[in-house]
Design brief:
L-leucine-2-oxoglutarate transaminase activity; Branched-chain-amino-acid aminotransferase; amino-acid biosynthesis; 8-stranded mixed sheet; 25% helix; 2 domains; D-amino Acid Aminotransferase, Chain A, domain 1; 20 strands; binds pyridoxal-5'-phosphate; alpha+beta; 8 helices; D-amino Acid Aminotransferase, Chain A, domain 2
Length: 355
């Protein structure tokens, strides 16, 4: 009889849990990690037996290619707990497909589906205490792959490490943000890998974002690299514009990441009868709408913050404030999505997956 994968996962438990030392009321995003991590190495042309081991340091050659050529991809997803103590994931199949899509573009070998889900479920069961019930509490899950082969030769590696680490998270209201519309810098280009969750896409954003922060903006809205005339997305969020009662968002492309939150909001809007236009969005039409008062809302959509309202944007030296609505779409979407994630509402789309 063939063993199932979960029987194949070698588990080495932490001798002691760190959970007692964690202040769950005051979590800084992404700083604290749970007791265990999932590890699977790719050597000799195949993924080896996966392991779950205590969260801790890695030993990697300084010449490992990830350090020199950035051959690395990742995912971001969350686990939620309802009031009965049941744990849920939200559309995890989308994250699984996307990490392999990102991997393909970075010439990283595909990771097997059974390993991904068995590894994830086993890890979530082991570290289940770390997922706190209550609206807004979650466990942020970070699967990633790095090229570990020791060699500074500039080509794809033949050794990799796939890992999953988990960090308890809280959603807290950090205030609506102001964003700067990119006029010079770009995060991605046609034929590039903007659609991939690849490490280098984020490294390249830090400097322009730092410059934006010096001007008083927290984030950048990237525009198309060719003309800078079209709105694309923010650093780790897709962007929606509400003009009158219609939502506008850019179509995904090889420059824009296909966000799970974005496509979930589009589906919910359509079900709710809110008009959504998925089409190239001109910077000039948004500036015009801001001037004539028809721009009602701008918000980002992504797993970490769910929906993140934007209160103002800067463009060509001008600053445009967006007047707060009484019943923002952003609030409606955030609640509707979280109700599904926390098992507080029906899930007509079949997005929730019990662990
Ligand atoms: C992760 C990410 C998003 C949001 O994707 P979700 O699947 O909704 O979390 C959007 N844009 C970029 C560039 C991202 O990295």
């Amino acid at each position: 009889m063939k063993n199932t994968i979960s029987q194949q996962i070698e588990i080495k438990k932490a001798s002691e849990s760190k959970i007692g030392q964690v202040d769950f009321e005051n979590l800084n995003f992404g700083k604290i990690f749970t007791d265990h991590m999932f590890v699977c190495d790719f050597v000799n042309g195949e993924w080896q037996s996966p392991k779950i081991v205590p969260y801790g340091l890695l030993t990697i050659e300084p010449s490992a290619r990830v350090f020199h050529y950035g051959q690395a991809v990742f995912e971001g997803m969350k686990a939620y707990k309802d009031d009965n103590g049941d744990t849920f994931l939200f559309r995890p199949d989308e994250n699984f497909k996307r990490i392999n899509k990102s991997a393909e573009r970075l010439a990283i070998p595909e990771f097997p589906e059974e390993y991904f889900f068995e590894g994830l479920h086993t890890l979530l069961k082991l570290d289940n205490e770390w997922i706190k019930p209550g609206y807004g509490n979650s466990l942020y899950i970070r699967p990633f792959v790095i090229a570990t082969q020791a060699s500074v030769s500039a080509s794809e590696a033949d050794e990799y490490k796939f890992m999953i680490i988990c960090s308890p998270a809280q959603s807290y209201y950090s205030g609506d943000v102001s964003v700067l519309v990119a006029e010079k810098f770009s995060r991605s280009a046609n034929g590039g890998f903007g659609y991939a969750k690849a490490a280098g896409n984020y490294a390249g954003q830090f400097y322009p974002t730092k410059l934006a922060k010096e001007k008083g903006y927290q984030q950048v809205i990237w525009t198309d690299a060719n003309t800078h005339e079209y709105m694309e997305e923010a650093g780790t969020m897709n962007v929606f514009f509400r003009v009158n009662d219609t939502l506008l968002t850019a179509p995904v492309s090889d420059r824009i990441l296909d966000g799970v939150t974005r496509k979930s909001l589009i589906a919910m809007a359509e079900k709710e009868g809110i008009k959504v236009e998925v089409r190239p969005v001109k910077v000039s039409e948004i500036v015009e709408a801001a001037k004539n008062g028809t721009l009602k809302e701008v918000f980002g959509a992504g797993t970490a913050a769910v929906v993140s309202p934007i209160k103002a944007f800067g463009y060509q030296g001008d600053h445009y404030e967006i007047e707060k609505q009484e019943q923002p779409y952003a609030d409606f979407f955030k609640k509707a999505l979280m109700d599904i994630q926390y098992n507080k509402a029906e899930d007509p789309f079949g997005w929730r997956q019990k662990v």
